[in-house]
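Record type: ASSEMBLY
Status: queued
Input:
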Amino acid sequence: MVIVMKPGAPQSEMEKLSKKFESMGLSVHPTIGENYSILGLVGDTQLLTESEVAASSSYIDRIIRVQHPFKLASRLFHPEDSVIDVEGVKIGGGNLTFIAGPCAVESRDQVFAIAEQVKASGAHMLRGGAYKPRTSPYSFQGLQEEGLQILKEAKEKTGMPIVTEIITPDLVELVADYVDVLQVGARNMQNFSLLRTVGQTNKPILLKRGMSATIEELIMAAEYIMSEGNPNVILCERGIRTFETYTRNTLDISAIPAIKELCHLPVIVDPSHAAGRWHMVEPLAKAAIAAGADGLIVEVHHKPDEALSDGAQSLKPEKFNRLISAVRQIAAIDEDVHHRHVPAQVRDNGLR
Amino acid sequence: MVIVMKPGAPQSEMEKLSKKFESMGLSVHPTIGENYSILGLVGDTQLLTESEVAASSSYIDRIIRVQHPFKLASRLFHPEDSVIDVEGVKIGGGNLTFIAGPCAVESRDQVFAIAEQVKASGAHMLRGGAYKPRTSPYSFQGLQEEGLQILKEAKEKTGMPIVTEIITPDLVELVADYVDVLQVGARNMQNFSLLRTVGQTNKPILLKRGMSATIEELIMAAEYIMSEGNPNVILCERGIRTFETYTRNTLDISAIPAIKELCHLPVIVDPSHAAGRWHMVEPLAKAAIAAGADGLIVEVHHKPDEALSDGAQSLKPEKFNRLISAVRQIAAIDEDVHHRHVPAQVRDNGLR
Amino acid sequence: MVIVMKPGAPQSEMEKLSKKFESMGLSVHPTIGENYSILGLVGDTQLLTESEVAASSSYIDRIIRVQHPFKLASRLFHPEDSVIDVEGVKIGGGNLTFIAGPCAVESRDQVFAIAEQVKASGAHMLRGGAYKPRTSPYSFQGLQEEGLQILKEAKEKTGMPIVTEIITPDLVELVADYVDVLQVGARNMQNFSLLRTVGQTNKPILLKRGMSATIEELIMAAEYIMSEGNPNVILCERGIRTFETYTRNTLDISAIPAIKELCHLPVIVDPSHAAGRWHMVEPLAKAAIAAGADGLIVEVHHKPDEALSDGAQSLKPEKFNRLISAVRQIAAIDEDVHHRHVPAQVRDNGLR
Amino acid sequence: MVIVMKPGAPQSEMEKLSKKFESMGLSVHPTIGENYSILGLVGDTQLLTESEVAASSSYIDRIIRVQHPFKLASRLFHPEDSVIDVEGVKIGGGNLTFIAGPCAVESRDQVFAIAEQVKASGAHMLRGGAYKPRTSPYSFQGLQEEGLQILKEAKEKTGMPIVTEIITPDLVELVADYVDVLQVGARNMQNFSLLRTVGQTNKPILLKRGMSATIEELIMAAEYIMSEGNPNVILCERGIRTFETYTRNTLDISAIPAIKELCHLPVIVDPSHAAGRWHMVEPLAKAAIAAGADGLIVEVHHKPDEALSDGAQSLKPEKFNRLISAVRQIAAIDEDVHHRHVPAQVRDNGLR
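Status: finished
Output:
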């Protein structure tokens, strides 16, 4: 951590600060410049927050973190890719994993029809929302426990593990009884109570990036879950909010190599929510796999014109089938050329 | 609501859609253009979501909402300002209300010292965090119930009602027993379970705008609370996330007149979180009042260099005192000139 | 174009507006709702700007454009892909085109060395900056005319056409004498004088998207050039500015299918400026081709540790070679599966 | 400047870099951490760009600038406010200056009518566009030299100095013959050729912040002008581009105290372009003055419903009159309380 002092900060203030940080077990290295002086802190600075340090003195101009504030999620301390196992389905470490299904569970027939078709196309897991976080209190909020029951039956029929969203800590126990992967949605990425509660289960967690969360904040949300004892976190890039209005969100494709450089957890991409328009799902999905994503989570609906939510971004099963075929070929080619899933930083030790 | 059809959409598709919307009790007005045709929907379209409509046909290019999706919070149906009463303290409708106190409750002595000083300066309510949402799981998470107890005693000593943040639905009952206003933080603005739960209490709710929430989304979050039966919502602008890195967030000052035009609820401003730097708190606070805010929520700490959180943005009590004096004069002047708190849209019927 | 009137707008005002627009040759279709009324304008509304219409009446609440404001660049009126020919090198229409070279021309030896290596890897054109737009007035500003001379000689040696940036209208004639493609940089995307001047040449123009330009604004900038008589515009996505600080810019991968849907011009991607870090160039380049880009413009430097500008994002020739090999295979596969370069909207008439 | 080396960077690489920077006259202070090591550079690092340094070694992880990259514009080296004199009108240093007039010059009658009314309300300078940068090539582009002539006559009639926008270097000489202040628009803030050319005149320059320019980039654009010998730069905040769509731009009110802390140049605010809606102009104007702005530039039109551009954001003269009266009272009050125009950082030496 580097502390930049304000121009004119007195020597005594820098000494006061040095003593304070030394008493916390850090070593302090001052560099005195003509206008600005800096203090370099060496040691276990990851547990210090910028705001705590900033509060220490009025003479502090800025604080610059050198080491990222996460430990358990950091690739620095865990260079190998983590591979998450969901009932035999593997995510990360070079595996290519597809999760597909409707936005919302609407009926037994709907879920069974879609489940069988996506399985035939090569999907490994089934997604479907039983509790829906909706921006309007007047919108369909999901079938709730009835929806969980339908998902469980779909698993029994198809063998595919189930991914569903969990929206509040009270429901974690109930939902965990029915499904295999708990999804924390973008709007709850910094719902720290929910993160702690799912961290106390033994279920894999699919953690979506918040609409305006930085990459570091996403990894810190994973750290929250891991700090409670659950190491099985799958990160999901699903688009960020920008000034562009043509697309619903802007898929941050560079988040894939960036996360893989900083963190050992698998990264999947949700091209459906990123685009908000079904005809962009395929190009974004292919881009994601080409950039090194470990898999996809895609909304598929057999009758999108009748879907109760997000039909506009759902693929029909036949388009999903074509998408899977295309991305598998991209991943295969890629693999021969240069090991798609190994980040350049790790592969070449980060050197040109 | 206006539905724009894709170029080349067949007549039969527009008829199919018209029938569908007519069966929902809406009237449909088509306009046929050379390249694009549109359907204008008239009636109670507020409960329709764009995504539901978009899913109705592959031939839909875009959907444009004419009427905002909120009802209970809308000024259209409630032209008068709402005035929220918190144990006799009034917010909205021309009142100028100040909430002040430390970021986090650290000790009885700290809270009592700050409470007495801010009360002397003219604060109407005391803020203080007992449960702290922190981006790092390793940071101080608040004194929790012990903190609530300290806040309650501070109210007994000073008479000031208490505002504190509530971070999860399970704690609503407990926290509501101790305090007077429940704050929903920026990260939880779309934690819909929490919104519903606080909507079922009879406590006033201070609802902070999410870091990347639009003005419409903020008002929709208020609608969530109100739809459960609690009309006492105070909105709070606290800065949005932009590309600018010099400030922690960018205070969206135009949100004040914009919200007042669309919504009848009071709007206060948090200049401390917006800036992230104490020396910007005063200019932002003055700007907020000049732009028509109904009040301020300000972090004050008697020993900011020792604060356990956010000391860098806390004012010392003497600076808070000066700030209150300055903004009171702005509000007073202003009032004479043109009724600061009445939005131009309402005052002049929106006409030049 | 749809005009939404304010609640309570008098009938007479709508009639006044209707007459005004009818006198401009448009037909006007009113829809009267309970709270809001709208006027649908049919006819040649592309030349109307929102701001002109908004000024027509105080009773206008909002204006919504149905048809995009561009004509010459619109795919609606020109469904086939444009193919730009640069001295025999074709861009667009299914061709895959690579432009490579150093950020800045530094010396004859540097340019010749890099040119030969990128040509051997399969590059079709050589890029190199002779006039450099730099954020600091104290940075290296380019070799200027001497740089143009070196680029011209490199073309003579290798046969590769030359792309270089033009930063001001006065230099257009001089630069056009030396090179084959004039590049308009991101910071000049809305330098309308420059757009007009390059529109009056007969050289192909490589137009980069501004850092905070919308997709519609980028296409409108192309329309500026085309409206002066030069139809040969190549669009370039190079990343937009967001709140994310880990990457220099956020590559907007969805801009590729979005532009292809709206516009018939070719779209290439600059992964070097988007990432700002060389080890992200390859994943972004592969993503771009997978998403349907018509080509790439990549910074290559044989000695990046000694580059005078942007060395941190330059690839060494051997990494560029590997990148070309990988993206060619992605493009080839892709082609078999579903015609990568034909946008879904066009291919399937936009229907699921 | 602080250079953070990658984990595992060899000692020899740090020595190579140290020698390189020492040979440039800097002193180098290494701090060796367990995972990351850093090099602190002391000396005249302002002329070094991050990209030049980043290119020096593959082992560099990040570069952190401690000192801002501007010198002539920096308050560090020029603690007193600059006061710009425009034909006797003073801007900065505690003066409150109003610039008003139509968006575009449309006719002699229009300009004269507006000029006399804004003068009567207390405006000090007249604005009006003769060359209009328009996003559509088909929009009204301004009366050009005829417009300049009208502005000159308006000055002769009213005595008010004239501010007009300059859009390309070729026109600088011509425009400078007619007017008193040259405005560089937001879209040209990084048109470096234009910045250099206006830097070579002796006219004051009104420099608008780009829509996605950081505060540092705005000050660097001023540095460009100043580095050519023209110290008379007035900065103008006019809103930045964010995800919010309700307003045209988001006025960055915190830019006012931020710029004043870093830079000695005057800062004015354009509330008309920030809001894009006339009824928000007054609240934003008052906020700007309350936050410490040195003045305002406001669009006024006597018949906004007939304006050829931006009528929707123009005030009628009577509303402008009320606005001036309100902000003068805010400024007056303010002055008594705490010297509105002196930044807190300077006033209190930046200390709480």
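Annotation: The mean pLDDT of chain A is 91.
Annotation: The two ends of chain A are 27 Å apart (CA to CA).
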